[in-house]
Amino acid sequence: MTDVLSRRDLDFLLYEWLDVVALTSRKRFAEHSKDTFDAVLDLSADLAHKHFATHNKKADAHEPTMRPDGTVEMIPEVKTALDAYAAAGLIAGAFDESVGGMQLPTTVARAAMAWFQAANASTSSYPFLTIANANLLAEYGTEQQIDEYVRPMLEGRWFGTMCLSEPQAGSSLADITTRAVPQDDGSYRVTGTKMWISGGDHELTENIVHLVLAKTPGGGPGVKGISLFIVPKYLPGADGAAGERNDVTLVGLNHKMGNRGTTNTLLAFGDGTHTPGGKSGAVGFLVGEEHRGLSYMFHMMNEARIGVGFLAIALGYVGYRKSLDYATVRTQGRPLGAKDPASPPVPIIEHADVRRMLLAQKSYVEGALALGLYCSRLVDEHDTADDAATGDQATLLLDVLTPIAKSWPSQWCLEANSLAIQVHGGYGYTRDYDVEQYYRDNRLNPIHEGTHGIQGLDLLGRKVTMHDGAGLSLLGSKIAATVARARSLGGDATGYADALDTVWNRIVDITAALWAAGDAVAALANSSVYLEAFGHTVIAWMWLEQLIATEGKSGDFYDGKRMAARYFYTHELPKVGPQLDLLASGDRTTLDMNPSWF
Amino acid sequence: MTDVLSRRDLDFLLYEWLDVVALTSRKRFAEHSKDTFDAVLDLSADLAHKHFATHNKKADAHEPTMRPDGTVEMIPEVKTALDAYAAAGLIAGAFDESVGGMQLPTTVARAAMAWFQAANASTSSYPFLTIANANLLAEYGTEQQIDEYVRPMLEGRWFGTMCLSEPQAGSSLADITTRAVPQDDGSYRVTGTKMWISGGDHELTENIVHLVLAKTPGGGPGVKGISLFIVPKYLPGADGAAGERNDVTLVGLNHKMGNRGTTNTLLAFGDGTHTPGGKSGAVGFLVGEEHRGLSYMFHMMNEARIGVGFLAIALGYVGYRKSLDYATVRTQGRPLGAKDPASPPVPIIEHADVRRMLLAQKSYVEGALALGLYCSRLVDEHDTADDAATGDQATLLLDVLTPIAKSWPSQWCLEANSLAIQVHGGYGYTRDYDVEQYYRDNRLNPIHEGTHGIQGLDLLGRKVTMHDGAGLSLLGSKIAATVARARSLGGDATGYADALDTVWNRIVDITAALWAAGDAVAALANSSVYLEAFGHTVIAWMWLEQLIATEGKSGDFYDGKRMAARYFYTHELPKVGPQLDLLASGDRTTLDMNPSWF
Fold first, then answer.
1. Closest-CA residue to B133 (of B301, B375, B379, B265)
2. Would you place residue A396 in the very low, low, confident or very high pLDDT band (cuts 50, 70, 90)?
3. Which terminus of chain B has fewer CB atoms gathered within 10 Å of its CB, N or C?
4. A 90-119 residues with CB below 8 A of B?
5. Considering Cα of B342, then B344, then B347, then B350, what sign does the dihedral take?
């Protein structure tokens, strides 16, 4: 069986480029070493191949169903896999030792998780959401909330969700109508309907911890009135076990094109199906302060956005590896110009167009993986930097990069999956092979955790303008440093450095020009195009970084990196040119289009 | 229910642009008029909505299965729909009256078929293949073969297939191993295995007429030794009904990501399961002359390639229309800069990024439909031109455009389907809505009837160089004529004309430069990039043609056409620039990549 990721590539990115071993000099990671990191990666690869990859197709073919009694039925392999994952302590990997964690760097924890995401996207989503939920509570919850909810989640006895969207309000959180009314005992009763809740119900764990956005009486209009609540499926019992059933009810499961193994649910809160404490209404517990719910949720959301990027990367990566394997063993046709039609067919990797499809995939998935790990490294910097200024810088840079880390892999690692199908020809279109599932699974990623369009608005409308453009400037200084190092190397690196420098300077100029008139409607008319151009530029930066890291090293692996960098700079980065021309022109086509003309 | 295509757009393309009514002055179409064309289109729309669209989702959810006795089970709605289609005489639409046809122009017949393709891609494939099969036999078959096979196919009593690929030879027909051995009675016995045969078995009709490529003893190596045979599932009986069972056996059904309603089969010919005439071996009848099979098959293949383009267009089109409907009724969010967060949400079509996604879809599907119908008009010209030179010109132009008419919709109308999902947000990812199925169905089209890579090799390696570049020159003269007309209009049209002219001249120069050294390996290294740049240029030409056709006309419909043309020229055509730069640079990245470096 093909490994779902390349350990060699991870080693390169983690050790030869990002130098995660240097993190062990920080107090938080002092107990760690390259050996412990390797052990976690080895364990993850092993568990992912043994327990996750093995039921990926089965979970797709046998999606969860809702039983007449309202519970969820799914194939048993999911629970077996997740129990093994939890037993290995991986849910708590990056958490404090004080709550039972390993205090792994986020960079290593993300790399470890990527094995599971590549092996089985839908089963990996349960711990993925649980970790993000627990992270939020560890940051903003009370000691009691941490004891009651975070610990059982980190042990894998309970899982977590995030409940934001409602049927009438997907991207528009200002319009949520779920209400939370305070009770005399300090708790709240929550009433409303939440849509698209992944992992929203199942029998995998004893309990499910929902983090729910709701409005309290007297809150302001729009997003300002939103607060955040813990609403467990079962109220915590006296002994720390799941107790009385809360008034949270599974209304239905969504049936999706892909990602079928993850239950995706419509949940009713407080519809009276259950009567905790003798009355209807879902019992909820406020997290932090009232009306600050959205800011807390964005802590989880930003983490989830990077995580969705990783999910897209992992799916792109495994598709790349399987199509590479296929191209190596499948024989068909002869080299162009072969004189003898009776000569034996060659492996299809010998055909230039097949190599093009493989190089494109390689440049997408390895470029995106570099960005995902780079962003994770920024999280570690934020958490453990020696001085506050360095930590703040990491946070600022992460803020700017998050919409790219989410959207770019969602677009281009999906494209990689399409190419993986294409390399397989007709076989790739059948369910006998794996790649069509990756393509279906990956199509979710431009939608959830903020659609592609939302990421564009976030980047151009907020991230590059905030703090007077400080984030944009910071990213510019990082890119400039890379450009300077590359120029000093000469050869291809210098040419790429020049190209990147030129494109980046255009982005800076265009950003200023778009906002010069102070007209947000005009500035944001092509924000998705801006997002895509910005994204390709960031990935070009990641490729220049990787190219620099191969300097002076020889062997197939490094030659492959160099060729992928060359592919990205010759075939991909130039695509940014027309996008920047469009933005620079202040194009108003989308604004001038009257809906009645369609 | 939304119409699956726009009749208004078809009327514009057929009557206001391509002037198909002018064809009625030709002898072959003298019995026709705008009224008869309208009647066929109305009937097709009606049948497509009533019998095809209604089981599209059901056919996807309940794909055909193979019973223990080796026969195929499928939902009954497929047969009901196809019986209605056949009863309306539509299989024979474009055929000679002498064989029971209506002698419709191909342009009208293709437009009529597009309704069925948009309503239900997989059910439409059965008559689609039957028509292509019958067309081949009507051209190259003997009178007896036409009576025995073409007539029952046109009546819908028998269906047809094309059997080219084998498990070890998909794109590489030189490597087929199916053998045909001549018998004393003039028939052949065929032995071999054919893969990916759409409609290869079913119980929809009394008989199935397979057109099979096979090699005869003594034939040359490679494709030169290939001959074409009729191999019916049941040998024709004395009374014209299906007679004795031939030795053709369904080995298995392929299970696909989409297009599930069309059986796609592995067929064994002559494996001894049946013993027609008392001995094993599938009885086949030679079509035309020995060793010319591939040239005959390309008659069918070229028609099928245009038809696959239409299938992709139709799927793109219906997805566009459904996402347009959704964007009009789904409310969410507020316009940028809206001050009052309590103001009611607006239909999402009010958001610029949603309009971008709709404009992109519109420019793709209407641009592609224009090309598909333009190519169909060339077929009519080939068939009925007043002088041979005009007919030959039409054939030459069609030869050059066929790889574009197949590949461009397969790529960009699939992208349209992705955008249709995106407009729907999370709902679009569920099977409760239609668009995810279109996306899955459409993903087949870059694969079958010659993959994307094969189309690129065909275009750059053969079509633009054949006859000393006569096809390329002819296309250039057509584009130049459009450019000249557009320039005379002034305004936007002049700017678009200049842009198109510039790009086209670059393509001509680059084509010459690529072949200047006579090194096919180097010339074809980026043939897929060439295909894509060429395709976008051709569609830009189609948009300029449409823009000219709106001249002097007012109203929403024409304003929409003008905006879609503007979208294509501002957002799409510029993408060609970097592709041409890459080609002009003689980039060798894909050639220099060593397989061991991946």
1. B301
2. very high
3. N
4. none
5. negative
- Which residue type, as a one-letter code, is found at position B497? A
Distances (CA, A) of B414 to A451, B312, B574: 19, 7, 20
Q: Do A563 and B345 touch (CB under 8 A)?
A: no
Mode of pairing for the β-strands spanning A72-73 and A264-269: unpaired
A426 and B598: CB-CB below 8 Å?
no
Determine the residue type at A190: V
Inside any domain, residue A304: no
Q: Which amino acid is at A161?
A: T
Q: How far away is chain A from the Cα of B344, in angstroms, using its nearest Cα?
A: 9
A537 touches chain B (CB under 8 A): no
User: How far does A333 lie from chain B, in Å, by closest CA?
Assistant: 5
Query: Which of B353, B563, B598 minimises the CB distance to A358?
Result: B598
What is the nearest CA distance from A578 to chain B, expressed in angstroms? Answer: 6
Q: Which of B593, B594, B596 would best serve as a mutation to test chain A binding (most A beta carbons within 10 A)?
A: B593
From the list B341, B556, B597, the residue facing A560 with the nearest CB is B597
Tokens of B167: 């498990």
Inside any domain, residue A145: no
> Phi first, then psi: what are they for A200, rounded to 5°?
-65, -25
Q: Dihedral sign, CA of B270, B274, B276, B278?
A: positive
Decide if B560 and A171 are in contact by the 8 Å CB cutoff. Answer: no
Instruction: Say how many Å lie between the first and final Cα of chain B, rounded.
Output: 50
Structural domain range at position B467: 458-589
* Distances, alpha carbon B356 to alpha carbons A445, A586, B170, B173, B558, in Å: 20, 15, 38, 42, 18
pLDDT digits (tens, 9 = 90+) for B267-310: 999 999 999 999 999 999 999 999 999 999 988 888 899 999 99
Q: How far is B407 from chain A (nearest CA, A)?
A: 13
Q: Would you name the residues of A annotated as active-site residues?
A: 449
Verify whether the Cβ–Cβ distance B356 to A425 is below 8 Å. no
Minimum CA–CA partner of A594 in chain B: B560
Contact yes or no for A327/A359 (Cβ under 8 A): no
Sign, Cα dihedral of A248, A249, A251, A254: positive
Give the separation between CA A42 and CA A39, rounded to whole angstroms: 5
Amino acid sitting at position A334? R
* DSSP letters for A2-29: --SS-HHHHHIIIIIIS-GGGGGGSGGG
d(CA B88, CA A263): 46
Out of B63, B449, B532, B545, pick the active-site residue. B449
Closest residue of B to A558, CA-based? B597
- pLDDT digits over B516-528, tens only? 988 999 999 999 9
pLDDT of residue A192: 97
Which residues, in sequence order, are CB contacts of A35 under 8 Å at separation 6+?
none
Closest CA to A583 of A501, A528, A541, A536: A528
Joined tokens for residue B131: 């028509």
Instruction: Please report whether residue A512 resides in a domain.
Output: yes
Q: Is the reported ipTM for this assembly greater than 0.95?
A: yes
pLDDT at position A224 over 90:
no
Distance of alpha carbon B417 from alpha carbon B312, whole angstroms: 10
Tell me how many residue pairs between chain A and chain B have CB atoms under 8 A apart: 262
Q: Find where tokens 């939608």 sit.
A: A447
Interface contact A596-B556, CB threshold 8 A: yes
Known active-site residue B366: no
User: Rounded CA gap, A22 and A550, in Å?
Assistant: 19
In a domain, B536, yes or no: yes
How far apart are the CA of B480 and the nearest CA of chain A, in angstroms?
Answer: 24
Total domains present in chain B: 1
Task: Sort out which chain B residues have CB atoms less than 8 A from A429's CB and list them.
Answer: 256-258, 443-444, 447
